[in-house]
């Protein structure tokens, strides 16, 4: 017995796993990239995004056009292949499947950083800091799986909210150039988003650039009318109310501001 104890090999340490879902799929094990079949990639991605799932539901979501028994067989094969590359990464017990090993997932880091920015009024608003890195890469852009649509929309909306919040905080700190960088990034991501237009107009006004604010308002009106057939909300149109009205006793300006219904 003592001889067996002396000759037994020590247990292997758990591998360190990093999973990339922003942009092309990637997985590193102990700092080295590993290759997985497509089905195994989708298994890892779904568990990373959705967390613990029942075995039958997971198989049905990954192989929706396959009979249940065949889908479950494909799931078993996928689990085996993933654990061959990263032992212990997929844990399956008592009818549920989840990721083990506590992998580092880029989407998780993005969400955590975004929540910090949205929840902390002073988060990352420094004098020398611009718009934060918000994962400009799309979530697995080469995949067309229907279950990814809601995940992509979730990250898209989160990114827009963070950009707008960052723009407002930078403007409040007097960093107008950096504030516009964040606000215009939100507008490029979704030109129909009225709150992004509102943020851009507000920053121009805060900086004292009334002409720029008017041009931004004109662009907002044109976009919403052309694409959606609607006018800007009173909140947006009211931003220019103070500068549109001439001082008491003064003659109205010959320039006519764009207003809803003109």
Helix percent band: 40-55%
Low-confidence stretches: 1-9, 125-132, 245-262
Q: β content, as a range?
A: 5-15%
**What is the straight-line distance between the termini?**
93 Å
Q: What is the chain-wise order of helices and strands?
A: HEEEHEHHEEEHHHHHHH
Strand order of the largest sheet: 3-2-1-7
Tell me the structural class: alpha+beta
- Whole-angstrom Rg: 26 Å
The beta-strand count equals 7
Number of helices: 11
**Main sheet specs:** 4 strands, mixed
Mean pLDDT: 85
Shape assignment: elongated
Describe the structure.
By secondary structure, this protein is an alpha+beta fold. It is built from 11 helices and 7 strands. It has helices spanning 2-7, 38-50, 55-62, 68-85, 106-119, 148-172, 176-189, 194-207, 210-228, 234-237, 241-244, and strands at 17-20, 26-29, 32-33, 53-54, 90-93, 96-99, 104-105. The strands form 2 sheets. The chain has a 4-stranded mixed β-sheet with strand order 3-2-1-7. The chain has a 3-stranded antiparallel β-sheet with strand order 4-6-5. Strand 1 and strand 2 (26-29) form a beta hairpin. Helix 5 packs parallel to helix 6, helix 7 runs antiparallel to helix 8 and helix 8 packs antiparallel against helix 9 (210-228). The chain is elongated, with a radius of gyration of 26 Å. The N and C termini lie far apart (93 Å).
